[in-house]
Amino acid sequence: MSRHSPPARRKRTTWLSELGLGLVALIWLLPYLWMGLTSLKPLAEIIGAPTALWPRAPSLAAYREVFRALPIARYFVNTSVMALSIATLQIALALPAGYALAKLRFRGKKLAFALVLSTLLVPAQVRFVPVFSLLAQAGLVNTLSALILPFGVSALGTFLIRQALLNVPDAQIEAARIDGASELYIIYRLLAPLLRPTLVSFFLFSFISHWNDYFWPLVLTTDDHARTLPLAIALLREQGTGVRWHIVMAGNVLLSVPALAVFAFAQKHLLRAVALRGYGA
Amino acid sequence: MKPSRRADPYWLLLPTFLFLFVFFLFPLGVLVRESFFAWDLLTPPRYVGFGNYRALWRSGELLHTFLTTLSISTAVVLGSMAAGLGLALLLDRPGRFPAFVRAAVFSAYVISWVSVALLFLWLLDADAGALSGIWRTLSGARAPNWLGSPQLAPWAIAGVTIWKITGYALVLFLAGLQDIPSSILEAAELDGASPRARFLGITWPLLRPTALFVTTTSFIASFQLFDVVRVMTQGGPVRSTTVFVYAIYEQLFLDLRVGRASAEAVVFFGLLLLLTCAQFLLFRGEEAA
After folding, report:
1. Does residue B23 sit within a domain?
2. Is residue B26 part of a domain?
3. CB contact under 8 A, B19 and A131
4. Does residue B204 belong to any structural domain of this protein?
5. Chain A hits for B147, Cβ within 8 Å
6. Are the C-beta atoms of A250 and A62 separated by less than 8 Å?
7. Phi, psi (deg, nearest 5) at residue B37
8. Per-residue pLDDT for A50 more than 70?
9. Which terminus in chain B has less CB density within 10 A, N or C?
């Protein structure tokens, strides 16, 4: 494109824009670096020279303190079980629903599709008041079920799977039917592998969103039993840690590293999920 | 396709609709019902008609919450759109460095709100925060107390949110830019169109649907802001950052007023519906144009 510009000018603009991009990257990366550095400082350095760049005597004391103060392993298991269950349940339910909506002719199909999409209009931030009072009366507050079941259906997941199934030729499904395959076999054994890229993208997207979720666990848990990691790390600050920022930042590293790791290994899938969402919703 | 048995589609949809009923439709009905009662979860509910709505309106709480949410959301949308579009234009080229910068910006969208809120709570700390330190070095004066002042706190919340969600706008704008055939831009360049003219005449008109989508979705999302407020300011100082979801949360869990919280949630839901309708109409207009 720019091969028609004069070479000298082009070189200067490239150099300048690289520098600008470098600055942009710093705006987003320096806070992480600062989080990591703070978590390695001993308390004396946090109080004494809070804005000193490098820890003079780096130590893992803050991490030990986090593990001592909180049952981190339990929160980690809770959070993983919750996020994995939600993502799995959403896909398990969205596959048959998406199949019916994409491939089968039946009365009320348009209405059914509209109803599924309408749940996009009712976010957790609206549902929590009645769901909380209902679950409180049913004695289900503080259980993992209260964190998982309300997210069992994902309108976005159903929509994405339906769209992907529209591209699968009917002939393939008819051939399987002639071979005597049941509908459930067709959905889970024949079609699901064909949709692999969509399913992986959606699974990761859903997993990360719920791993990160703070709102719902905050509203529906009051003790350790079902508490999740984001909640526990936020509590770390509220529970009178005062100026002990190295401990809060150590907790924050433990909370954000898993999400960043998934991102590093599956960047393409997550970007795809966001772009799909862009075309979807 | 014809289903093999007539009932098949209904069976296949049944689980989805069970969940939909139990966790969406039924709660919505309960929400509206509870908004007409005064209830503290302990003593029996008492019917009060529109009393909850009237109280919210008369105390000025509803209007205040609405304006706070509106101004923070507007700042967030303008900021993240401008940053996302600007960065997308700079990053729309192959190479490892642009890919790296894109990943760096997008990573903030991937980590949790709690992480971001705690991180900036520390960076913005009035005494020991790194950003306050930089401010002191550059201006020689004491850094303002970002989160302690009712004038600054809403903008600090908006700034942190922009940092978090710019990656979302960036990724969608990049996808939009990559859909523009480079042959059109090259032809315009050969005809002597300046970069500015190329942007205004070709790139921007073709990006408009993307821009509209990013604007409306980020606006609806920032209307639902909560985590960052809960962790950083708890709605304060002097309620200057009490956005809708935080106000509802406060009614329910700090004041134990289920009815009042429900009424506020109903109003909030109505506003979200209005925003979604506006989005829908805007898109229809865009397609017709």
Report:
1. no
2. no
3. no
4. yes
5. none
6. yes
7. -120, 155
8. no
9. C
**Lowest-pLDDT choice from A152-166, A219-233, B273-287:** B273-287
CB contact under 8 A, B110 and A218: no
Question: What integer pLDDT is reported at residue B288 of this predicted model?
Answer: 65
Q: Give chain B positions within 8 Å (CB) of A38.
A: 122
The amino acid at B79:
G
Q: Indicate the average pLDDT of chain B.
A: 90
Q: Does the pLDDT of residue A75 top 50, yes or no? A: yes
Alpha-carbon span B281 to B289, nearest angstrom: 12
Among A97, A132, A214, the residue with its CB nearest the CB of B13 is A97
CA distance linking residue A101 with residue A105, whole number of Å: 8
Of A12-21, A27-36, B19-28, the poorest mean pLDDT is in A12-21
Q: What is the pLDDT of residue B280?
A: 82
pLDDT at A201 over 60: yes
Residues in B closer than 8 angstroms to A166, CB to CB, are none
What are the domain boundaries of chain A? 2-63, 66-280
Asked whether the beta carbons of A146 and A228 are under 8 A apart, the reply is no
Q: What are phi and psi of A225, to 5 degrees?
A: -50, -50
- Secondary structure E strands in chain B: 37-38, 46-47
Closest CA to B163 of B100, B112, B105, B221: B105
How many domains, in total, are found in chain B? 1
Instruction: Quote the CA–CA distance of B135 and A279 in Å, as a whole number.
Output: 42
CB contact under 8 A, A130 and B103: no
Report the residue from B31, B111, B265 with minimal CB separation from A256. B111
Interface test with A, best of B10, B16, B202 (most A CBs within 10 A): B16
Indicate the residue type of B187: A
Q: With CA atoms as reference, report the closest residue to B225 among B113, B62, B148.
A: B113
Q: Is the Cβ of B4 closer than 8 Å to some Cβ of chain A?
A: yes
Query: Touching check for B257 and chain A: CB below 8 Å?
Result: no
Evaluate whether the domain defined by A66-280 bears CATH number 3.90.950.10.
no
Residue B165 CA to residue B220 CA, distance in Å, equals 13
Whether the CB-CB separation of B261 and B251 falls below 8 Å is answered with: yes
The CATH number linked to B62 is 1.10.3720.10
Inter-residue contact A143 to A222 (CB < 8 Å): no
Residue B33 lies in a domain: no
Chain A neighbors of B91, CB-CB under 8 A:
21
ipTM of the complex as predicted: 0.89
Question: Hey, are the CB atoms on B114 and A214 less than 8 Å from each other?
Answer: yes
B171 touches chain A (CB under 8 A): yes
| Mean pLDDT on B195-200 | 88
Q: Which residues of A touch B248 (CB under 8 A)?
A: 125, 129
Q: Does pTM top 0.95 for this prediction?
A: no
- Confidence at residue A241, expressed as pLDDT on a 0 to 100 scale: 57
B9 chain-A contacts, CB cut-off 8 A: 100, 104, 106, 109
What does the pLDDT read at residue B173? 94
pLDDT at A4: 47
Domain span at B247: 45-288
